[in-house]
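From the shared-data thread, chain only:
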Amino acid sequence: MTTRRRQSLVRKPAGTGGRSERLVMAGCVLASSMVGLDGIMTTVALPAITADLDAGLTTQQWIVAAFLVALGGLLLAGGSLGDVHGPSRVLALGVAGFLAATLVVALAPTPGVLVGGRLLQGAAVALILPTVMAVLTTTFSGERRTRAISLWAAWSGVPVFAGPLIGGLLIDAVGWRAVYLAELPLIALTLLLLLRVLRPSPDRGRGGAVDAAGAALSVLTIGSAAFALIQGPRLGWSHPALAAATAVGFLTAAALVAWERRAANPVLPLGLFRNRGFAVLNLVTFLLYGGLIASGTYTVIYLQNGLGLHPAAAGVIGGIPLMVLSLLSGRLSVYADRWGGDRFVAAGSTLAGVAILLLLSVGLDTGAAVVLVLISVVVHGLGLAMLVAPLTSGVMSAVPDGRAGVASAVNNAVARIGSMVAIAVVGVVMTAQFTATLDAGLAGRPMAPGSHAAIAEAADRPLSTERTAGLPGEEAARLDRARAQASVAAFHTGMALSGGLTVAAGILALAGTRRRRGTVRYRSADTVGCPITGMRSHPGHRPWFSDRQPSR
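Structure, as tokens:
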């Protein structure tokens, strides 16, 4: 390869190399920040979105799940695209796609268009997250790389402190569309900055092929599962569409396994899962992030729809766990290296699970409920701060040195898939509990005309205690009381399941991941990442997709 073909990813005009590198850093920070900011503000905006579009819990689930389906299914393929075409080109493409998708979401006239926009956002983010890290590791080297990635991690977490409040205030003052419209200038600035300071290397990346078939099968498998779980309560579990979705899911899952076993560059390297430690830690991740994301999402919804908090207040409370994680993770990871990362993962998971289970005491008294939620989210954040870094280091240490990067990438994808499944399953369970409790509360008394329609509408908003309109006063009051009790019962059931998943992850981490001293090659204290996108890595290894090998 000639010297010309080895030239840097970054434009470095004479005497301005340092400035170019600072601009690269700024672009990568902005790219991560805009993704994290969008996720935080979307959660806060869910009640306002569904109220404006006359939708219910099913739409709220799809708004979150569509993003996770695309992201979880395409995250590994996004890294492969960076490998083939160069990370800078793919990063810019991802940011441009995110700009277009966010505009679709902001202007969406119907729930279907909005969910489609979220699906496109997830696909764009699958290009952004892996290539941000790759651009940093390609631009910087040695100790400067370690410092650059640490600075990226620190600055990318800044939105967690302001995002929930800003998003809530925008929703209160203007409406939910303002959240996405306000993102557009930031995304456009990020794109312009990246186009100015980054350029693809002349050899268009490292070459090879992208496993497009594996990526497509992944999305179909995850998407089929999401459709069956989310639409089940609405369509009825015997509906032909659910049977078809289930069949498609099983067929595409079987095809995915068969294809990946023989693919030259598999998007999902199945060979890694032959390692017991790696397999167990990924199961821990699946359960853990499922419980954490489901509890966080539904708590923010309940704070607004059930307890009547303003979006700004609910957003700030919901963001506290990430704030605690950002502040304490680095400090606690030092102790994880000293006392054992597996113990910290187990203890942190259990502590976070217990924090979620504290929410079973939340009732209809708004003041008392807010105090309990505040205690819960602070403890929840402490558990997160204990477990995130040692979980990453454990996953990377469980596999041979040359596979550490792709192991971390697979674990990040598993976290997204677990979150999607839990959002769907917890929603199904809450809806069933709400319906059962509401039916029991209204049983034995004649219903006024129009009550059945009001009950059906209430069933699609199980976490809402809004007053019933269009019924006689006494009948409406009776339905309101039953609905409030049913909403509390549904929330308790959802938190019991979410907390149970998180505690189960802690038990599994302790029982299934005992490692001998000296087997952890990557220290927890050295792993870094963005607290709001969830992407974590280690400054010492190559870009996470650059160690791809056949899975055989």
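The first strand starts at residue 528 and ends at 529.
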